[in-house]
Amino acid sequence: DVVCAAILACMGFALEDRVWPFAGAALLCGLIRPEGFVFAAPLTLLVIWRTRASLRTYKALLFGLILPGIAYFLWRWTYFGEFLPLPFYVKAEAEREVLGRFLRDSFLNLALMLPAMGIGALALILSARLGALRPRLVCAVLLAVALPALGFYCAMNLIQNIGNRFFAFVPLLAVFAICAVPGPWLRAALLATMAAMLAQTMPLEFERGALKSNDRSIAAGMAAFAPPVRMAVTEAGAIAFGSGGEVIDLWGLNTAAFSRMPATGADFAAMQVDLAVMHYPGAYSCAVMMERYRALRAGGVQGPWDIKTRSWPGMVESVLSGVDPEKYAFYA
Q1: Nearest alpha carbon to residue 250 among 108, 90, 99, 127
Q2: Using H for helix, E for strand and C for coil, what is the string for the chain?
Q3: CB proximity list for 271: less than 8 A, separation 6 or greater
Q4: What does the pLDDT look like over 96-123, one tens digit per residue?
Q5: Taking residues 280-288, what's their average pLDDT?
Q6: 86 has pLDDT over 60
Q7: Is the previous residue joined to 304 through a cis bond, with omega within 30 degrees of 0?
Q8: Which of 91, 112, 175, 276 is 20 to 30 A (C-alpha) from 322?
Q9: Other Cβ atoms closer than 10 A to 30
Q10: Residue 172 in contact with residue 7, Cβ under 8 Å?
Q11: Residue 74's Cα: distance from chain center in Å?
């Protein structure tokens, strides 16, 4: 994963006080994912403190990170018309049950990473006990990344957290801690133990090669249409990317019009799109979507609905209510 690679590079360069490479890796974190600053900002402060706020450090950070970051921020603000990245608006809206700040479901997702957190903590203890080089610095780097990131993600509504991907950095931090442990056999044992424990707690996501190949074939066929296809999607994947047409993100992660509140059936009816590609939460089965569509129609739904909700089932069913069966054919 490119995001994890960028985070790991930031941590490694911060550990070695390599300021220019660190600035480039930190900028890459922010360019790849909008929340990349959550990882880069505390490490930047650590680098400034470690290098005693030298002129060389400020120069590298200014020209390698801050000025390019501001330029990208201003361009994105102009392009989307929103001050913050669109995913922040989408994922910040939620009912926070824990202390009024955090989401219970986010903590449940984090709990799946407890084996990695435990192994990482054990690795830090072993590093200190066995005389590893700079164990305190390794611990400082890990805490600078872990604490802000964990707090941020536990406060966000983690929509589309497939395979617990938003907490994928946790095992990465554990690997970073394990690499500081002296002795190759001990490191190998820790890595094997963590992998075995995660295999028991993490839901394994298997890539469906045939379906992905079919997605690419559909996208290639649509790319030949003139004029280009106009589509609405709940997830911008291979079909949307490869079609070359206009894509409307019903969630608002990429479409500013729906960043404050997702699309409704009334919105869909007004879009006049050629194609809608939608997924139902919990089960990415075409049969589930067909069942929901038929249930809506059989129930005598008088659409389109104008129900605005951040609930994934609610949003999908609201959009489905705006599908005119005389204008669209349903494929599952």
Answers
A1: 90
A2: CHHHHHHHHHHHHHHCCCHHHHHHHHHHHHHHCCCHHHHHHHHHHHHHHHCCCCHHHHHHHHHHHHHHHHHHHHHHHHHHCCCCCHHHHHHHCCCCCECCCECHHHHHHHHCCHHHHHHHHHHHHHHHHCCCCCHHHHHHHHHHHHHHHHHHHHCCCCCCCHHHHHHCHHHHHHHHHHHCCCCHHHHHHHHHHHHHHHHHHCCCCCCCHHHHHHHHHHHHHHHCCCCCCEEEECCCCHHHHHHCCEEEECCCCCCHHHCCCCCCHHHHHHHCCCEEECCCCCCCCHHHHHHHHHHHHHCCCCCCCCCCCCCHHHHHHHHHCCCCCCCCCCCC
A3: 230, 232, 248
A4: 888 888 999 889 889 888 989 999 999 9
A5: 60
A6: yes
A7: yes
A8: 91
A9: 22
A10: yes
A11: 22
CA–CA gap between residue 101 and residue 114 (Å, rounded): 21
